[in-house]
Amino acid sequence: MNKRILEEKIFKILMYVSILIVLGSLFIIISLVVANGATSLSIEMITQTPTGGYYLGKSGGILNAIIGSLFLALPATGLAFIISLGIAIYLQRDFTNPSISSFIRLSLDILWGIPSIIYGVFCLSIMMFLGLGASLLAGIIALTLLEIPIITRSMDESIKMVPNGLKETAYSLGSTKFETAYKVVRKQAMPGILAGVLLGLGRGIGDAASILFTAGFTDNIPTSVFDSTAALPTMIFHLFSSPIPGVRQKAYAAALILLVIVLCISIISRFLLRKSSKFILK
Amino acid sequence: MLIKNGSFDKKWLMDKRKIRDLICTKLMLIITIIVSILFFLIFLILLSKSSLILGSESITDLLFSSNWNPSNGNFGYFPVIVGTIIVTGLSLIIAIPISLLSAIFIAEYAPRKIRKILRPFLDVLAGVPSVVFGLCAFLFLVPLVRDFIAPFFGIESTGLCLFTASITLAVMVFPIIISLCVEAFSSIPLELKEASLSVGATKWETVKKVIFRATAPSIISAILLGFGRAFGETIAVNMVVGGIPKVPSSLFAPTETLPSLIASKYGELMSIPKSESALMFGALVLFIVVLIFNLLGLILLRNAKKRWKL
């Protein structure tokens, strides 16, 4: 009897230890980035592009990376949103046989698991084939492909929640399948759909491997889709590779900016999800 | 006349709506087909790009030769593949017990309030960009390993090594394994737990003998999916692994992983067709391994979900 209770106690302590390790690692990450980033963060950093000797420790900022990240992630998320909405609607029972849609869901889940560097290599291969090199466009396409499975699957989950009665009402009034899906189901599932989009945006804005080759790297703010561009993750990667400590310090500031953006997106998405589950008809 | 006109208008309107319905439905069908065969397309492109190196060298040479020397045209992937497997394996050995115990705590032991607080923290951990993970590992783990852990075992190390990379990866797969396991643990029927508790089993005995057994397929699938994620992780590993394509001699020796190798060498080797093709072969290997693990994990997960009728 004692042995059993002892075992229970030991494992309970182990559980506390492991949850502390998990939370502790998050705490360490955030405090490291904030502590190191805040000291080297300045107004100059977010309002100026790098000057000639920026990577040697001269003045300048990382405005090009911040703008570049927005130019990459926002159009990519927009494109992925349109494509994902189409797929998520099409996956519903009204359009597709459940056995086929389960296969499509499996292939989307597989796409979700593919490492982002593969998307980068794939897109660059296609771009080279078309005669374009590293460019904003290539980066956008890579991020779009990366985000599609994420956005589609979470949209799919929230569209599935829409009660059948609502659809049947729309059908009985004579609306077509597309009208029902687009005007009734989409509106009902909107907060969940937006939460999915924000999830994709958060993933897209933080991903470095897929845009490492596809978007290239430059000190200028891109003026057309065929220019190469810097982005926050790749900027951090470049600054980090510098052997000069002062420059490396700037990588922490860039990481702080990136982390704040990603955390904001995540908080808004959680808020939307809570709102969406509140108004779902049961 | 007027009525006729009216009915004509109505018919035309009806047709317009039907045409729109048809066009949109077909458009959605096309998008869906393209996206669902995308993984096959990626496979084909990678295969065609690596056909150059596959034509000139045998596949066993590429996979099992340890001679990695791109400037001489030697592309032996053996050390890199071994490095990847060791780094990923070690990270899972660290991550599995911690994730499982955390998941059990969240699903079974934690009071409702604490559970509600814990979930957002896990989501935040899952959302931290990999480049930030790499940066923090470099700031925190590298000096720790260099100054304390490696000397403790009597080994000189720069801190940029297999061990550091594994811990970084373990932290990155925590949220994936934990959230999948929590979902599995909370989906099994209450009666199963109640039956076990009512015959006098302790809570941990119930967990060990009922919950773990009932959710074994889900746990395995969570581990497989975590493996897929860890195997393909690029930037964070690249920043702390050392980047030397050698079979590591100790836990604290630098090594190289497949995705990290592609990330650091692609820019420099892409101008030479043969080297580019060799790297594409590396990407193909990475793709196939991740695909197999994910497929196994997903199929197991589906069967497990059917079992408890989710």
Query: What ranges of chain A have pLDDT less than 50 throughout 5 or more consecutive residues?
Result: none
Mean pLDDT of chain A: 86
Report the largest inter-chain contact.
Answer: A-B, 80 and 82 residues
As for the CATH topology of chain A, it is: MetI-like fold
Q: Give the percentage of residues in beta strands of chain B.
A: under 5%
**What is the percent of helical residues of chain A?**
over 70%
Quaternary structure classification:
heterodimer
* Tally of structural domains of chain A: 1
Strand order across the largest sheet of chain B: 1-2
How would you sum up this structure in a few lines?
The complex is a heterodimer of chains A (282) and B (310). Helices cover 76% and strands 0% of the residues of chain A.
Description:
The complex is a heterodimer of chains A (282) and B (310). Chain A has 282 residues and is an all-alpha fold. Chain A has helices spanning 2-40, 43-47, 63-90, 98-113, 116-129, 136-160, 164-172, 177-188, 190-206, 211-214, 232-241, 245-278. Chain A starts with a helix and ends with a helix. Chain B has 14 helices and 2 strands; from the N terminus they run ααααββαααααααααα. Chain B has helices at residues 2-36, 38-49, 51-56, 59-64, 78-109, 112-127, 130-152, 162-185, 190-198, 203-214, 216-232, 235-240, 258-269, 273-307; strands at residues 68-69, 74-75. In chain B, a hairpin with a 4-residue loop joins β1 (68-69) and β2. The mean pLDDT of chain B is 86. Chains A and B meet through α1, α3, α4, α5 and α6 of A and α1, α2, α5, α6 and α7 of B.
